[in-house]
């Protein structure tokens, strides 16, 4: 009997390393494949037994798998750019309730199927906060979809014309968190307004929705073109809602001004340093 005759079904003769690589690829364990040799050397050095060696490998695989899953959720959300609350300067928007935002980042509102509406004038950071909450939701294991109101309406109308509206509506209804950005920047046609209303209606108490708008509620009629439709929409959207107020000077303008100040200060410091004699410490040029 040859060595090949004693091998499990589906295997062929070869070195253990080759066979192990083959089996790990078949089992879709890329992290174990990449790390098993290095971890084996570390465990041999530290006197770690076999069960703990396997435990280390499996933990590495699980951690890496979760990272890949989160990355996939973020790609599927189609964020225009990744944003986090770590990079948001709350001091520039005093009207924003920081504690509420940090609480929302825990994503428990998604489990309760509650909504968030961020209101404020242009440039105050509404989209940044919405993106950051969307990122937090992806990291917590929820499916997320991000789009502007104008883009969503365009997709809905295109799907209606191509006889695939029901499919798109089911997809939007299934997402755990739908983020609709810039509602109010572009007036909607009567058909577009009705299709958008239908999205909100289908998600009512079934999923969470974040809406950002530069308009106060009393001006939403100018977007939807109908007091009846606007009233019905607000009735559903605000039934279970957290409202974020972002009013004040432009957040983007403040950030841009701050960057320019830092750059100018750095350039001035560099110019001063260039004019200092390294031996005497005295300024050599006026």
What does it look like?
The protein has twelve helices and five strands. The protein has 286 residues and is an alpha/beta fold. The chain folds into two domains: 15-54, no CATH class; 85-245, 3-Layer(aba) Sandwich (Rossmann fold), CATH 3.40.50.300. Strands 2-3-4-1-5 form a five-stranded parallel beta sheet. Helix 7 packs antiparallel against helix 8. The chain is elongated. The model is unreliable at 1-7 (pLDDT under 50).
Short account of what is shown:
With 286 residues, this protein is α/β, with parallel strands linked by helices. It is built from 12 helices and 5 strands. The protein has helices spanning 16-26, 30-46, 50-77, 98-104, 108-111, 126-139, 149-161, 165-174, 190-203, 221-224, 227-237, 251-274; strands spanning 115-119, 144-148, 177-183, 208-213, 241-245.
General shape: elongated
- What is the CATH level 1 assignment of the largest domain? Alpha Beta
Number of domains: 2
Order of helical and strand elements: HHHHHEHEHHEHEHHEH
Distance between the termini: 93 Å
CATH homologous superfamily grouping of the largest domain = P-loop containing nucleotide triphosphate hydrolases
Number of helices, counting only DSSP H or I runs of 4 residues or more:
12
Work out the radius of gyration: 28 Å
